[in-house]
Amino acid sequence: MDFDQTYKGPYCPLTQIALAGSNAMNLKQLSEILGLSQTTVSRALNGYPEVAERTRLRVQHAAQKHNYQPNIGAQRLARGRSMTIGHVIPLSTQHEMVNPVFADFIAGAGERYSACGYDMKLTIVDDQNEEDIYRDLKSRGSVDGIIVHGPLMNDPRIPLLQELDLPFVVHGRASDIETPYCWVDVNNASAFQRAGEFLLSLGHRRIGLINGLEHMDFAHRRRAGLVAALEAAGITPNPDYLHAGEMTEINGHNAMKAMLALDTPPTAVVVASFIAALGVRRALDEAGLRMARDVSVITFDDDLSYLRNGDSIPIFTATRSSVRQAGRLSADLLISHIENPTAAPEHKLLEADLIIGSSTGPVPQE
Amino acid sequence: MDFDQTYKGPYCPLTQIALAGSNAMNLKQLSEILGLSQTTVSRALNGYPEVAERTRLRVQHAAQKHNYQPNIGAQRLARGRSMTIGHVIPLSTQHEMVNPVFADFIAGAGERYSACGYDMKLTIVDDQNEEDIYRDLKSRGSVDGIIVHGPLMNDPRIPLLQELDLPFVVHGRASDIETPYCWVDVNNASAFQRAGEFLLSLGHRRIGLINGLEHMDFAHRRRAGLVAALEAAGITPNPDYLHAGEMTEINGHNAMKAMLALDTPPTAVVVASFIAALGVRRALDEAGLRMARDVSVITFDDDLSYLRNGDSIPIFTATRSSVRQAGRLSADLLISHIENPTAAPEHKLLEADLIIGSSTGPVPQE
DNA sequence: CGCGCCATTCAAAGCGCTTTGGATCTGTTT
DNA sequence: AAACAGATCCAAAGCGCTTTGAATGGCGCG
């Protein structure tokens, strides 16, 4: 814990902030208007059974009429719960990419939070002290639970959160962690295995991979899946065909370009992200090659709202799984575990669809 | 206001939630350990001057040692402030795109919030009742201020927030609103005017526009800027060359494809987003045309972390302005107005850079 | 009639923090 | 020496809600 350099608490003689006299209607006022006790009004609004139905209706109408909303800080304090779920987004200065998948995941999760009365709190953490953030979140009572994004193969956040006894759901998994915990993940291995098998069935034997950073768990599994398909077909993966890096358009482009420069380039590639696949297409265009005819491409497609894979006919053959849906499921799972803390950890494994588009075709004749 | 269908308050006989006995260290305990009053401990930690420096150090050490963090709900209640800034993301079911720019903006703003001791609260609102959300936020004291995303030309949120007396900063502007308010915006008009002038200087006369939805303020201004450049050169914009739609890869592709099918297609296009520009490139590739040589392309580039415009040589000629930086500036502006509520509204107009890349060239000979 | 039993309602005690309005103790001033 | 000022510290009163434990009133029943 460090006492922040830039924020020193409420003492600020220069800009004396008028402590907002909260002009909003409060419980006391409302109960006086109604000629009822605060207890009864509170219970009426919170659905307790020991209040007469007539009274409840009267209270609800009055609340609506006077635009009463319980103060959230007071509720948090009194209930000992924050009704808030935290998302921590690490953003080191080296690796300062915001995961493009993030916005859609959040949108899915946020839908469910709203429906269940939870708030979403986002924390952008730009240094190494991510651990401190979690400890803080716990000890200040800022959140009732946490979503863990972008797990590594042996992610230290998982044991930490377990130790802190803060409910959490991982979006993804951590292969090297044995103890049970809650997660929601796509079956990355099977998706890429099927992609590989599909390419093999088209006659491809020289199959490349443009993967995400392989200390990320999802990338590790995708590689394993593809390699499994190749090896099952008696093919030893060619190291020159295996690329891993941040999943940007540029990296996709550069990786494809590098492979095209080989003596015997692959006839097909599997790409770990739609954005990288756009870069692959650019590299092919620059080389005067056409997708499907010259090089087959399969991409993973997170079904992002702003990057749809074509309207009617898909542009790319793809393994598709909606990350927004994963957001919804993660939110529901977390909420259910917050409200039922003794339940055993649960998880959900989603299967990606293999969508046939116009970026794959039979292996070209030599 | 409506009492949510799905969430009925704390009464839930089935899943009796153990009200977390908040095992964390609190102020009372800490003050007892130190043999001081809660007052003094609180003041010591909050930087008040009337506590002896020796005492302050002793308190800080003890706080650190016992891992004391003030409970956030209690602080909110006592201070009458939430130290939270709200971002409301509308997401109607028809128009269910998550703005791809959003993640980077949030990352920029979040950096500043963390540095200044504020939390960020995201609300995804999927129906029409966005107005209720703002009223709620105000009357529950959930947030101290709000960032308004994606303003329309005459955005009803602005007068609403003014009426509610809730500090806010608009990311963008609303052309039709006269009353002053805080905003941070790129000079969209000047950016697209310069883009137009640059194309004119290369000899282009048939210049197209692939714009965002033109009820969005930014899109309206971009169009105005481009049209101004054309008209200044004595060119009346051809309606067939003016497209507006959601800024997706597919729409960019379709708009370009439509223009290429004209008897006299444009020799250059200005595109309102990088993602749409990728679609434009695809349309050109499919038509066997090359960027720069056959058709010049200029795009607006928000400098998204996951969509960089090339590493060394930019792929596209572009008007560039970092949306992440806009996030930082918006956050700083909002915080300064929250802490100094009487200050007159301020705003910041950012100029985009015109970056010359390899997607533009002289007009082809007929 | 007197008793117990629901069904309702309420007063008051927190939740953990900030802040007001002194109190106490030095040291300084007249 | 009395009075005052400044530097520290404190007890207690909130902030607005939830929840405990008890009171109230109506009603049926022996």
From TrEMBL, chains A, B:
Record keywords: DNA-binding, Transcription, Transcription regulation
Pfam families, A to Z: LacI, Peripla_BP_3
Domain HTH lacI-type: 25-79
Source organism, top-level taxon: Bacteria
Signal peptide: none
Entry-linked SMART domains: HTH_LACI
A molecular function (GO) term: transcription cis-regulatory region binding
PANTHER family per the UniProt record, alphabetical: HTH-TYPE TRANSCRIPTIONAL REGULATOR GALS, LACI-RELATED TRANSCRIPTIONAL REPRESSOR
Protein name: HTH-type transcriptional regulator AglR
Record organism: Donghicola eburneus
